[in-house]
């Protein structure tokens, strides 16, 4: 009997170890929160200044990219969809074992206080539980939130997701987030979408309701209503006090606040609680007018989009400075409005044209405008009517084809490279924003190309791309550079010069990789988030025809120089010309900009002969805004 | 309580520990078994425990009385009481609606519509199993082949023994009851083999049977929508579904009993390797076929009353066996098909011997596939929701050119491939197990290899098993 008990015990231990170390990571669903946690644990222990916690409200509202750059600090958001405060407290407890930030921002609203009851609410908590360590507190939370039948799946992602065994991450590969619909940065997730028509219809009276939000008399408030729920906020306050960390409570803007008395009660009760505990409470629902928040700044009634987040974050940054949570030097304070504007995701107009062309049956485009921000281009179409457009969009696909001049085709990147032009198809209403008026807009990734031979926009009935009737809008010889001051664009229509303007030099002396490949300069620029474009300026007398016989390689390490930390990327050696100089370009996706070692080298295709290495050690790549 | 449920995962270890704590105190041990068995059954619906208690009580008293009297009339009367109570329960709960429907349908044939509606009766889980088990006790005493027990606790525990209460094996009192009279010492090897058998049973049920069920249900619940290879595949997979489901349950039952020192009879022995329908029934649901042999076939005269009477007896046994499986005409047809082939095989015994004896190639290339084909053909009636559905499925099976996408039947490509691989592994395992006992092979292995094998089974169940929400949970044979 004892032998059996011992063997069962050991077997169970082996089973749990294998489950937790091998299978649970395989079955753990890749989501933006998991990515955030992984990123967070790659940071230095002492490097973190500000941590943001909360639900999707917080995740969508506070842009860590803007906070970092405006305040010169290191911030991170660990907010996640539907995160309840009880779970947040567990997460804070877990994170504070490793990190000691100066300030914690906790986003609260009535919906985040109670325990999850519905299935989707319970699932939401799992993304946090999956990524925190096992403690008695966590066990208690799990047993109180999940029923007996739900516990095994709450505890183990393998049990929970085993049905999708064929889609599990068996290779333990790092999975990237889909950045086509949102901008991700250190836990922040900024949506590109704009609130749709149907939701706007329910919010027609929000202006009047907004004004009533704080008009409640204090004796109308029922303090017993949220009594138990507020205990969890008290717990958060206690945890921060115990760890000697400042806490700021915030409430992101959301329209439901104006449609519920509970939200007003909540505002007053939290304000009171904060006063008692000598901490601050910043409710952005009281700042709609100050921030000029409109329906266009929201992706739905509960969440701001990327553009709303710009406004909210800008206001938060100013608040943090005014309340002395963080300090920046005087010149930075003076430049703050300008800095915030530079960091903003807001689009700037680059092109506009009056038209009268049919895009859908009986729907004409009166005006076409193109906008640009850090990451994207936006095409906005003003239509002759509003009614029925949504239905037409459901039945049609919209396609954008931009053909560059020959000289610029080598600047095309990714999937566009092979196609020799930029093509984007918009399949559904998810890809197309309709803002409630007669205006629809679509987004395309920002391009290196500024001058196009032709841009074509057309619609076709779904599944009938070849045979169906198309309504085409042609924009020939379109020069988007006209609104961007640049003296570097040469007469041939190349945009290369503009790119080279913003590079950071790595090497400014001549270097010979071998007898053929001799360079005068190596530089780089941060072309997009985490994408770095390296340029090699070639010595003038080089025989560039010989270059085709080589493949170039970039090799870099994050952390210790070991095989595990090694990243290698090969690239074809293609020569481009600009302003009479010749260059080789390679674009590399680099997540961690702290490179312990960076090598460039070339290998001859046939003989596999390896060139000299150009090596740099301890290099920190600069971001676009720093260049 | 289902064997593949979280409740059982808590229940069984608890009972196991308590059992071995009181194992040397017979009364306490049997009391624990009885309470555990009633909890196990009552977890589903405690009200139906009354039926088990009544059935146990009647047969216990009848057994005592039968032993004490030599008066034939009295003995017959006592046996009649037992049959009336046990078969009465069975007939009422299982066949009332069937008889009403058949009655109404037969009048409809003559153009008369009767205004009789069916009753709202819940079929108690496992009623066909425990009534047959208690009946065997009374009949054996009546035949003077068994002495009745004076130990009511042992008898009640025998009737309600939780590992085999709801889906067998249908034990005979002569084999199982004496096991309740003695205590057992803890035997590590026996417990280990029991646990392994339980794991293997769960693997068959959760990985193979429940996965196959998804595709089978999709096709059989929409018979007009599928044709050709789609219906053929569904039927073949049903053959493996029902085998893995039922033999999986039996493995868990035998394994669970073994961990407590009890020995239950073997219920399946690689039936799909049979080379005739007669052989198939020697390897399929052995406890039921031997029950029918002993308590229906032999009383009917068996093979002692001439060739034609033997054929008739065989056919009747399979007809009744069909009806035992379900109160519907499809089950009767299923039984009849088996009955017909058993009779034909019996009639052609000499010819078959001449053709197949010592001819392995013929046996494996002709007899085995043909037997499997017949079994699958009969399964169509067994699984179809109605007679018209089964005819539709048979018709559609011939429309090969109408086959569409076999990966569009509820199981996507990787799932279907996984199912094929698992069935193949099971068949390979059974072939090897026939020659070399898996336990013997395992015990000869070094401990790390053995553990790798155990862990593989456990993780296969965990990862490839069908469980959680929206999955098939019930064992098929619970309904019979």
List low-confidence stretches of chain A. Answer: 483-494
Shape of chain A: globular
Secondary structure: number of strands of chain B: 0
Helix content of chain B: 55-70%
Rounded Rg of chain A: 27 Å
Unreliable spans of chain B: 470-474
Largest interface: A-B, 20 and 22 residues
- The CA-CA distance between the termini of chain B, in Å, is 16 Å
What count of helical segments of chain A does DSSP give?
A: 18
Number of domains of chain B: 2
Q: Which structural class should the secondary elements of chain B be placed in?
A: mainly alpha
Q: Oligomeric state of the chains?
A: heterodimer
Written account of the structure:
Chain A is of the alpha+beta class and 627 residues long. Helix content of chain A is 30%, strand content 29%. By secondary structure, chain B is an all-alpha fold. Chain B has helices at 6-21, 26-45, 49-68, 72-109, 127-142, 152-160, 173-176, 188-220, 229-259, 277-283, 286-297, 307-325, 329-347, 349-356, 360-383, 387-397, 413-435, 438-444, 447-464. The radius of gyration of chain B is 23 Å and the shape is globular. At the A-B interface, helix 1 and helix 9 of A face helix 8, helix 17 and helix 19 of B.
């Amino acid at each position: 009997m004892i032998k059996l008990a011992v063997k069962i015990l050991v077997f169970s231990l082996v089973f749990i170890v294998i489950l937790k170390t091998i299978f649970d990571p395989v079955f753990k669903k890749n989501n933006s929160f998991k990515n955030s946690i992984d990123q967070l644990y790659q940071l230095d222990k002492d490097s973190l200044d500000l941590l943001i916690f909360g639900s999707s409200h917080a995740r969508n509202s506070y842009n860590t990219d803007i906070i970092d750059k405006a305040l010169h600090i290191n911030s991170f958001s660990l907010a996640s969809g539907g995160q309840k405060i009880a779970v947040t407290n567990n997460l804070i407890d877990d994170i504070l074992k490793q990190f000691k930030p100066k300030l914690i921002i906790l986003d609260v609203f009535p919906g985040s206080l109670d325990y999850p009851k519905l299935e989707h609410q319970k699932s939401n908590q799992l993304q946090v539980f999956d990524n925190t360590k096992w403690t008695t507190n966590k066990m208690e939370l799990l047993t109180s939130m999940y029923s007996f039948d739900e516990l095994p799946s709450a505890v183990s992602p393998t049990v929970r997701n085993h049905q999708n065994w064929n889609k599990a991450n068996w290779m333990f590969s790092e999975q990237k987030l889909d950045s086509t619909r949102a901008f991700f940065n250190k836990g922040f997730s900024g949506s590109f979408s704009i609130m749709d028509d149907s939701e706007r219809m329910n919010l027609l009276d929000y202006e009047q309701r907004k004004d009533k939000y704080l008009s409640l008399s204090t004796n109308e408030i029922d303090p017993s209503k949220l009594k138990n729920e507020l205990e969890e906020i008290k717990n958060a306050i206690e945890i921060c006090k115990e760890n000697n960390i400042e806490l700021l409570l915030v409430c992101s803007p959301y329209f439901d606040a104006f449609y519920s008395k509970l939200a007003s009660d909540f505002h007053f009760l939290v304000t009171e609680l904060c006063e008692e505990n000598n901490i601050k409470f910043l409710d952005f629902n009281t700042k709609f007018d100050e921030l000029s928040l409109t329906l266009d700044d929201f992706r739905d009634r509960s969440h701001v989009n990327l553009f709303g987040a710009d406004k909210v974050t800008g206001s938060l940054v100013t608040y943090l400075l005014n309340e002395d949570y963080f300090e920046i030097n005087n010149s930075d304070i003076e430049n703050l409005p300008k800095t915030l504007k530079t960091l903003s995701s807001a689009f700037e107009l680059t092109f506009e044209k009056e038209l009268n062309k049919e895009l859908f049956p009986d729907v004409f485009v009166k005006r076409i405008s193109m906008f640009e921000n850090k990451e994207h281009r936006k095409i906005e179409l003003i239509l002759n009517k509003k009614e029925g457009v949504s239905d037409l969009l459901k039945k049609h696909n919209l396609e954008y084809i931009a053909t560059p001049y020959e000289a610029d085709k080598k600047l095309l990147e990714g999937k566009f490279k092979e196609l020799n032009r930029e093509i984007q198809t918009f399949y559904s209403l998810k890809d197309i924003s309709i803002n409630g008026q007669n205006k629809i807009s679509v987004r395309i990734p920002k391009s290196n190309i500024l001058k196009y031979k032709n841009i074509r926009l057309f619609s076709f009935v779904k599944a009938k791309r070849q045979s169906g009737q198309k309504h085409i809008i042609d924009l020939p010889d379109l020069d988007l550079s006209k609104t961007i001051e640049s003296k570097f664009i040469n007469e041939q229509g190349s945009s290369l010069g503009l790119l080279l303007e913003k590079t950071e030099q790595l090497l400014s002396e001549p270097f010979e990789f071998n007898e053929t490949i001799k360079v005068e300069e190596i530089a780089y620029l941060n072309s997009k988030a985490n994408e770095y474009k390296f340029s090699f300026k070639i010595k003038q007398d080089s025989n560039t025809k010989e270059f085709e016989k080589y493949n170039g390689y970039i090799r870099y390490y994050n952390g210790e120089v070991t095989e595990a930390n090694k990243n290698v990327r090969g690239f074809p050696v293609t020569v481009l010309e600009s302003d009479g100089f010749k260059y080789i370009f390679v674009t590399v996706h680099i997540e961690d900009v702290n490179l312990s070692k960076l090598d460039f080298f070339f290998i001859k295709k046939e003989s596999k002969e390896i060139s000299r290495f150009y090596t740099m050690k301890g290099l920190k790549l600069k971001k676009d805004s720093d260049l | 309580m289902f064997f593949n449920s979280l409740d059982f995962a808590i229940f069984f270890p608890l009972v196991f520990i308590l059992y071995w704590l009181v194992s040397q105190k017979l009364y306490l041990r049997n009391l624990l078994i009885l309470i555990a068995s009633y909890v196990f059954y009552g977890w589903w619906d405690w009200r139906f425990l009354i039926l088990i208690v009544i059935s146990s009580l009647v047969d216990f008293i009848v057994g005592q009385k039968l032993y004490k009297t030599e008066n034939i009339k009295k003995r017959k009367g006592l046996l009649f009481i037992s049959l009336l109570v046990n078969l009465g329960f069975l007939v009422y709960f299982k066949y009332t609606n069937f008889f009403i429907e058949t009655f109404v349908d037969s009048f409809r044939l003559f153009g008369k519509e009767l205004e009789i509606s069916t009753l709202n009766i819940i079929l108690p889980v496992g009623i066909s199993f425990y009534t047959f088990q208690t009946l065997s006790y009374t009949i054996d005493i009546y035949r003077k082949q068994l002495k009745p027990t004076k130990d009511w606790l042992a008898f009640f525990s025998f009737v309600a023994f939780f590992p085999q209460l709801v889906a067998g094996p249908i034990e005979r009192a002569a084999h199982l009851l004496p096991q309740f009279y003695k205590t057992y010492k803890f035997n590590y090897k026996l417990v280990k083999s029991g646990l392994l058998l339980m794991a293997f049973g769960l693997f068959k049920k959760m990985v193979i049977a429940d996965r196959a069920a998804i595709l089978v249900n999709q096709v059989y619940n929409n018979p007009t929508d599928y044709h050709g290879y789609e219906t053929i595949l569904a039927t073949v997979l049903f053959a493996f579904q029902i085998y893995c489901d039922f033999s999986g349950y039996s493995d868990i039952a035998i394994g669970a009993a073994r961990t407590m020192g009890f020995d239950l009879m073997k219920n399946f022995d690689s039936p799909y390797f049979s080379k005739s329908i007669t052989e198939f029934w020697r390897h399929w649901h052995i406890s039921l076929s031997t029950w029918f042999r002993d308590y229906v076939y032999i009383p009917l005269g068996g093979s002692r009353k001439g060739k034609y009477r033997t054929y008739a007896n065989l056919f009747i046994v399979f007809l009744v066996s069909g009806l035992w499986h379900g109160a519907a005409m499809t089950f009767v047809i299923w039984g009849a098909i088996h009955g017909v082939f058993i009779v034909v095989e019996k009639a052609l015994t000499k010819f078959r011997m001449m053709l197949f004896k010592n001819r392995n190639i013929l046996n494996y290339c002709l007899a085995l596939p043909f037997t499997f084909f017949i079994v699958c053909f009969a399964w169509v009636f067994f699984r179809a929701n109605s007679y018209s559905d089964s005819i539709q499925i048979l018709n559609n099976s011939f429309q090969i050119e109408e086959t569409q996408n076999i990966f569009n039947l509820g199981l996507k490509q990787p799932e279907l491939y996984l199912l094929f691989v698992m069935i193949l592994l099971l068949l390979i395992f059974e072939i090897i197990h026939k020659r070399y006992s898996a336990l013997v092979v395992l015990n000869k292995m070094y401990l790390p290899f053995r553990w790798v094998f155990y862990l593989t089974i456990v993780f296969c169940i965990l990862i490839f098993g069908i469980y959680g929400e929206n999955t098939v949970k019930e064992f098929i044979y619970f309904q019979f």
